[in-house]
Design a protein that fits this description.
- The protein is of the alpha/beta class and 520 residues long.
- The chain contains 16 helices and 21 strands.
- Strand 1 and strand 2 form a beta hairpin.
- The radius of gyration is 27 Å and the shape is elongated.
Amino acid sequence: MKITGDQLARLGTVAFLCWAMPAYCQDAKPGSSGSRQAAASYVPFEGKSSKWHGFVRYDFVMDDDTLGIAPSEQPQSEGDGIGNPAAGQHRCVVVVPAVPARGNPWSWRGCYWDHQPQTEIELLKRGFHIAYISASATLRPGKPWDAWYDFLTQKHGLSQKPAFVGMSRGGEFAYTWAVAHPDKVACIYADNPGGNDDVLARLGLLARQDVPLLHVCGSVDPILNKFTLPIEAIYQQFGGRISVMIKEGRGHHPHSLRDPKPIADFIEQSVSETKREPPAFLAAVSARQYYYSKDNQYTFFPSEGTYVTCRGPFFTPCYERYEMTVPDVEAFSKVIVPNTPAPGNPWIFRADVPQPNAVDLALLARGCYIVTGAMPFNHDDLVVEQWNRVYQHLVQAGLSSKPVVEGDGGAAGEVLTWVVSNPDKVSCVYFVNPSLHSSTAGARLLDNLAPLARAGVPLVSVCGDRDPCLDDTRELERRYKAAGGNVQVIIRAGASHFPLAPDDPAPVVAFLVKGANLHP
């Protein structure tokens, strides 16, 4: 997906998000129920107030021994900033919006109060409270942070899931508290963040709680490769949502964006989204995971005066992914759910969990489900009877009786085993660099193509001209044509076995749309 100049001008609006990532915007309204939960009725803050960038500010002092919190008066000399706490104390700040948003959302600054505050000022305009507790190299997250959270949520009724704003060490602190309390976090915006081994080891806890992440970094920041890129890779493997914005030529400073609307939009959308109900045919609901493109977009941001590399679900459609168990099937299947199922509930049946690729993303955008047939733990190959049970389960649930069947590499031979056993249950077949061998089949797969051809099932195979399995594709093409079947072969010049995707997905998508009678 490319961002045009007009779209870039609207980047700071929720409208852009609804265009760019429909999964986020499904039934989501600012202030709606969902992750914005209030533990109790809102209780206004007390004590002498001051001003912070034009908004009402309240200061508090926490005793580190008792964890008691009492109102305090801010020294006038501090202005919008905050001084160091006295020994044995933490200083705390809350800034109140003119009109609190429904659900009393709030953001929690992880460190460096009042540094590049433009995002928080924008959030205050949208009805968020802003909160902070003293943090430094010696004042790290711990019991005082827990007490501050309880004070804000239990005594004053703020949302039970704050959004974190963490810059540099503040990013490390935000993650440190979040992985210890993964069910109490709405989202994390981390800006050139630090980190530690414990955070990296526990990221799966946040992914399981479906906590969206956004990192804004400089391309020459010395800790980009140390923390942001590992966090991104780990979170993606866990199926979590993480988006990244990398500012070309920028270092550790300046933090944030001069125009904070994209960051504020991410936070507002994250705290107000309403989760969709998973498909009923899943039976037992597993943890919600996500499937989205990892492709980069390189876009000029006038407000930053540089290009920004953007990727992740903040900038591209995002699809929910679940595990499905079927009675008498040994292993689980993966199900990727379209945001708007097409009429007739078309679906893709494949043997492996696909990495995000342009063909499958295009089919998801057209309303197709993607389902992996269970590959059993106690067999060395596909078990046709178990695949039949998965097929019957989905058809009985209302999915199409003729799915598209896909397979990459060695998985192609496995799915072809099921296809030649069920030619009347297939709309069309798509292979990428197929290795057409299977220990499941009692005879060579290429000797059993006639029933498939008679059933009128079209085949398309994409193969690199340097791929070791190209001979399989050529033999498949020769035999299928000889049997009277419709087969299309696309050769990728100069390509070997990887990547497992065509250079141009359009011809494959057009072939599959026609073969499966999908709406263009």
